[in-house]
Specification:
The protein is of the alpha+beta class. Helix content is about 40%, strand content about 20%. The termini are far apart. The structure holds magnesium ion.
């Protein structure tokens, strides 16, 4: 057998991890209904078409997009459930939040797939990239009770091929110096971005395996396959062309946060505390997307469900709630009527723009502005480490248990106080967590 020369001798100039949920929707169903584990399960009952099937169903020959009727013919005992996208997206969110615990650079490419940039983390975790990747995979599988496959390599294209290499629950690591061995086993049609027509063309030219492809020179590839062909050629050789896009959604028209509370209240201070909590949550999200807001809408919902709102603009957009609080308080005072019972507060941030750091207006106190912005950033850092709202405005002390809420009923239910690592009360509330191991 002829010896193949390596494409590169460098093992980890970069480390990109690709995580891919195995039979994701069906696995979510098995996670929240443990009695379905080990059974053939298909989702898609509502459309009468198989949307996803468990590995047990796959093993029997059930495929995606066939009719439920056909699936039943293949296996009369198959468990058919309607799609529950809300649950799937909650589990998906939790999967990405596990990844983000290890690195902030995470790209959500679909509901069950994402990339994480691990470059430079070996020193932080004092272990190899492979070990970090395995830890992330293990953490997702044990916390969420769903199987995932993981691929680790130098570029997104290679990492995705690696995660597909062994499934389900597979882990494949392809450092730079073995790329050539790996590509020798990958049929060219498996490469993401190479469709059936391109595959047919490449086969005519004697290119059957990904290795054949990268051994052509770049100008040959560009001549036959154009720009994208060239990009894939580089990616497959371990040269990153496609960057990770860390946020799934970066363009927001507005960000809003509301909170309904029970029982309704007519206490001004309590309402203000509720509203300030909404405002801080909205700003946390705003800063996560590196945006700032110029327009603020405050609204109150009365006990009989009537809403009253008021809108106002600051002179310029800000990423700091402290800068917006005086305006928001004025708006609240405008809206508030002492003898009315309120059941909800809300804030909408709009006229959002990219946060480009500070630009001072005339007559402004630059020292104060800089310190407000620094404060906001430090709050984000502390909250990222110790949990959302660890640091909050003093006003919100009105929301702590033991303080007079309404009729002394402002106590936190047990389910909110027993959180798992990485959870917040809100995420936990909406998540059908059944596999808590005590
Ligand atoms: Mg998948």
């Amino acid at each position: 057998m002829p010896r193949i020369s390596p494409i590169t001798i460098y093992t980890w100039p970069r480390a990109v991890l690709h995580i891919d949920g195995d039979a994701f929707f069906a696995s979510c169903e098995q996670a929240i209904h443990p009695e379905l584990k080990g059974k053939p399960v298909i989702t898609g009952k509502e459309r009468n078409i198989v949307a996803s099937m468990s590995y047990e169903a796959k093993a029997l020959g059930i495929r995606r997009a066939i009719s439920i009727w056909e699936a039943k013919k293949i296996c009369p005992n198959v468990v058919i459930v309607p799609s529950d996208y809300e649950t799937y997206s909650l589990i998906s969110k939790r999967m990405f939040s596990v990844m983000r615990r290890f690195t902030p650079t995470v790209e959500e490419s679909s509901i069950d797939e994402g990339y994480a940039d691990l470059t430079g983390l070996r020193r932080l975790y004092r272990t190899s990239y492979s070990e970090i990747a395995k830890q992330i995979k293990h953490q997702i599988e044990t916390e969420l009770d769903i199987p995932v496959s993981a691929g680790l390599s130098l570029t997104k294209t290679l990492a995705k091929l690696a995660s597909k290499y062994r499934k389900p629950r597979g882990f494949t690591s392809v450092p730079g110096d073995v790329i050539h061995h790996f590509l020798k086993e990958i049929p060219i049609c498996e490469v993401c971005g190479i469709g059936p027509n391109t595959t047919a063309l490449l086969k005519k030219k004697g290119v059957f395996w990904a290795l054949d492809y990268v051994q052509k020179n770049e100008s040959w590839v560009k001549q036959y396959l154009g720009k994208i062909g060239g990009e894939l050629w580089n990616e497959l050789r371990g040269e990153p062309i496609y960057p990770l896009v860390p946020e799934a959604k970066t363009t927001y028209d507005s960000i809003s946060k509301t909170k309904t509370f029970s029982p309704p209240t007519h206490h001004y201070e309590h309402l203000k505390a509720r509203l300030y909590r909404n405002v801080e949550s909205a700003f946390i999200k705003l800063r996560r997307y590196r945006l700032s807001a110029k327009r603020f809408t405050v609204y109150l919902r009365e006990q009989d469900f009537k809403d009253y709102g008021i809108q106002s603009d600051l002179n310029r957009a800000t990423p700091s709630p402290q800068e917006a609080f005086p305006l928001i308080e004025t708006m609240l005072q405008e809206l508030y009527r002492p003898n009315v019972l309120y059941r909800q507060t809300g804030i909408v941030l709009s006229r959002l723009q990219e946060d480009r750091g500070l630009q001072f207006e005339l007559f402004e106190d630059p020292v104060r502005m800089v310190s407000l912005h620094r404060l906001a950033r430090s709050i984000d850092e502390i909250n990222a480490r110790y949990g959302k709202h660890t640091v909050h405005s003093g006003m919100e002390l009105y929301l702590k248990p033991g303080t007079i809420g309404e009729n002394g009923r402002n106590t936190i239910p047990l389910r909110k106080t027993t959180l798992l690592y990485g959870e917040t009360a809100r995420q936990r509330l909406s998540f059908p967590m059944v596999q808590i191991k005590v």
